[in-house]
Specification:
This protein has 98 residues and is mostly helical. It is built from four helices and two strands, in the order ααααββ.
Length: 98
């Protein structure tokens, strides 16, 4: 009978560890909601353009995100617009005004 109690304790401990791990993973998940319409995309493109113009040098996506004060998803959305218009170019791993 002593063996059964040991097995139950080990199973309970493992179950508690799994719960803690699951809670940590879901607590750190962050969702960004981006509205996809022409007006919003245009504003994000403007934010990206202004950040690059103010910096007067090539920036990485993370640097643009920080300078523009928008999320990375919004930065990429605006960059897509600007790439299509030929307003920005990629130099190595950085982005600069064309």
């Amino acid at each position: 009978m002593a063996e059964k109690k040991t097995v139950k304790k080990e199973t309970a401990t493992k179950a508690a560890e799994v719960k803690k791990t699951t809670v940590k993973k879901t607590a750190t998940a962050k969702k960004t909601v981006v509205a996809f319409n022409a007006e919003n995309v245009g504003f994000k493109a403007g934010d990206v353009y202004q950040a690059l113009a103010a910096a007067e040098k090539a920036l990485t996506v993370k640097e643009i995100t920080k300078a523009a004060g928008i999320s990375e998803e919004e930065t990429l959305l605006g960059m897509g617009w600007l790439f299509k218009e030929g307003k920005i170019v990629s130099v190595e791993d950085k982005i600069t005004l064309a």
